[in-house]
Specification:
This protein has 160 residues and is α/β, with parallel strands linked by helices. It has a single domain, classed as 5'-nuclease (Rossmann fold, 3-Layer(aba) Sandwich), CATH 3.40.50. It has six helices and six strands. Helix 1 packs across helix 4 and helix 3 packs antiparallel against helix 4. The longest helix has 13 residues.
Length: 160
């Protein structure tokens, strides 16, 4: 599978998103094929409603075992969107619920896209899941693979 063997972006199942595991070792030191860390964007978390995507099942299909993280800025974005009305508010509400299945992480950036790029450029994640094309380009430019919607309701990995 493309993109699953990036040794520089794999983290142990107990790894903190700062790239260190419970023993304080750098995540890069793991040679045992441990689970990659995947950062989720609001567009990905809203995809189950907007595109009928089974997000976590698709990630399991693509990556097998993985650890999902959501920047606090993405959680804040979803909270703001779900206070509205209509399909977008419903999608944001579902997205906020799905975000609870992932670890919320802090970044220096307060804007969601910048937070995701920060996670990518600092090596804290091995993949970013987004359907936002400008964000995907920024992440790919940072040499980190992007997982995005392909076809009706399937996710695929785009390598830098």
């Amino acid at each position: 599978m493309p993109g699953t063997d990036r040794g520089d972006a794999t983290y142990g199942p107990t790894a903190d998103v700062d790239g260190r595991d419970a023993d304080g070792r750098d995540a890069d030191d793991h040679d045992d094929g441990t689970a990659p860390v995947v950062a989720l964007d609001a567009s990905a978390l809203m995809a189950p409603i907007e595109a009928n995507v089974r997000l976590f099942e698709e990630l399991d299909r693509l990556l097998g075992s993985h650890a999902a993280v959501v920047p606090a800025a993405v959680v804040a974005e979803l909270d703001g969107l779900r206070s509205g009305a209509g399909t977008e508010a419903t999608a944001a509400s579902v997205g906020a619920d799905l975000a609870e299945r992932a670890e919320t992480v802090e970044t220096d950036a307060s804007y969601a896209d910048d937070a995701l790029v920060e996670l990518a450029t600092t090596g804290r994640v091995g993949y970013v899941v987004t359907n936002d094309r400008p964000l995907a380009r920024r992440v790919l430019d940072a040499d980190v693979p992007v997982i995005c919607l392909r076809g009706r309701n399937t996710l695929a990995i785009t390598e830098p």
